[in-house]
TrEMBL record, chain A:
Entry protein name: Branched-chain amino acid transport system ATP-binding protein/branched-chain amino acid transport system permease protein
Entry's Gene Ontology cellular component terms: plasma membrane
Residue stretches making up the ABC transporter domain: 12-244
Classification via InterPro entries: AAA+_ATPase, ABC_AA/LPS_Transport, ABC_transporter-like_ATP-bd, BCA_ABC_TP_C, P-loop_NTPase
GO MF, one annotated term: ATP binding
Organism expressing this protein natively: Paracoccus thiocyanatus
UniProt keyword annotation of ATP-binding present: yes
Keywords (A to Z) from UniProt: ATP-binding, Nucleotide-binding, Transport
From TrEMBL, chain B:
Keywords: Cell membrane, Membrane, Transmembrane, Transmembrane helix
Name of the protein in its database record: Amino acid/amide ABC transporter membrane protein 2, HAAT family
Record GO terms (molecular function): branched-chain amino acid transmembrane transporter activity
Principal location listed in the UniProt entry: membrane
Record has Zinc as a keyword: no
Recorded topology in the membrane: Multi-pass membrane protein
Amino acid sequence: MNAAAEIQGEALYAERMSKAFGGLKVFHDVSFTLPPGGLLGVIGPNGAGKTTMINIISGRLAPSSGQVRLGDTRIDGRPVYDNAGRGLVRSFQQTATFSGYTVSDNLRSALRFARRDLSVLERLAPLLDQFGLVENWNRHAEVLPYGLQKMLGLTMALATQPRILLLDEPAAGLEKSERSNIDAYIGFAQREFGCGVLLVEHDMELIRRLCPDVIVLDGGRLIATGSPGEVLNRKDVIDAYLGGGEEDDDAEH
Amino acid sequence: MTTATATVSGYLKQKAPFFSGHEWITLGIVLLAFAIPTLTANPQFLSQANLILIAATAALGVYIMLRLDLMSFAVPSFMAIGGYTVAVLSLRLGVTDVIVLGLAAFLVPALCAIPLGWLILRLKGVYFVLVTFVLTEIVQLLLFEAAPLTGGSNGLVGMPAVRFFGIELWDNSHVLLTTTGLAFAGFLITAIFTRRFRYEFAAIEKNDVLAESLGLACWKYKAMAFAVAAGVSGLAGFALVNMLMTAHPTSFAPMSSVNYITYTIVGGKGSILGTLVGAILLVSATDYFALRGELSPGLFGLLIIVVTLLARGGVIGTVTTLVRSWRGKGMRPLADGAARKAPKGGA
Ligand SMILES: Nc1ncnc2c1ncn2[C@@H]1O[C@H](COP(=O)(O)OP(=O)(O)O)[C@@H](O)[C@H]1O
Ligand SMILES: [Mg+2]
């Protein structure tokens, strides 16, 4: 119940993780560590396997080899709800809400499924207000603008008071003006709940602003690790992005 | 406290009632059936009321599974398990207490549903439909083949009348009272069960991947729903066997599953009232137009197509929408939230 009091959780370890779908090798031998309460950026061109990685860590897919650990507990291949119960909660690249239900009921559902008290929403009130969810409290999720739906989905993940958040391109599809919401969201998660955050993102500005460290996935391998400043200036990283056809998802082509 | 926090706190104090109006109306209508024997002794009318209540209770099995977006053809199999359990208990073991029999008619199918559910609840969409239909065919076959237990093609005949605290319930009006009691139990269980877990069921219906990612163990709720649906169907099976004083395989024909699905969909699958209204309308219509045997599944199939194409919400859904838009022309805002917009810039 009192997540803020036990801020220091366990680190998330990905160890020599590989994934293949039949003959298609998505990535191979990827290892990294997300320290408790830390923030790690993950970048890579479309199709690099970032969403697949989140699916594996959350338990939706099993890795082909390697393992995922939360502290000393091995969690790969465990049911998604089990991992969520351990405090490992993911968001979705596309909007994900319960359609036909109001903002209020969506948030209440998240709290119920995570066995959290309604009062969590009072703590989240400043964020809910900033995102514009309070003024839309009794509207159905599916009639909200895309950006609001996305923020609702993200807020539902946060309302479970996770210890580790896996965010799959939270800024994708948001207007430029709405992107500061993501800064506020991640800041709040770290400050108030002590969340560790794995941030998959295409918005390099956002990555530069927020992440002390990033890893780069390309061609099935982890090609670089380090601070955004150095990693994003490396030639192989720039090539990977140009090869992938985009540097920013607002690019014209 | 900031303005935003105060506004959210205010919203959190608003509580939805446990039962909606539809649950109350439904339970009220079923209760009214207790009064029928005091109003009329017309055997035609009594038997009609019996058939409606049994049909409605059976269709609850469909209603419950539709909460999870699963279309179940398994209702007749669990009715059969409930009905034959009662017949075996009363004929072979001399149990006639209606409460004991009712408990058995609920629990035995519910327990059978747990291992079956473990096998088939991982299926979705058409695969689930197909397997539940096959299940009904298999149960039908077993009823014919397991003659030592089920009496085979003769069925189990000559059941003694059931007793309620020692009072024998034997004539037409007593049979209706028994049926009404079983139907009320079925509706009450269904209403409580579906309302108690309404967030869970709605989430599984709309987006089970999201629900799991927030921590919901979806399989537990599916297994529970399948078991409760089986138990409620079992109560309907009891009522049917009690009315006919016979347990016979033809009472649980696989094609009858289409009827139960039709009641729920035509009445409106969004609300428990839909199942009751669908059964009332369609069982009466079947009788009125003297539809028999093979004809009704065909016509019912046609009716499902019409409803699916023209009025998804069925009778109750359509009426509710009409009433809402009517009232909407008046003053009442849809939800008081709109009137209580958070003042901007205060936070
Ligand atoms: N369930 C699946 N079955 C087969 N191939 C898949 C599946 N999920 C993803 N892929 C493939 O794996 C690759 C990586 O996809 P994804 O993880 O979505 O990339 P990203 O999120 O980095 O854009 C793509 O080539 C995609 O087509
Ligand atoms: Mg992706």
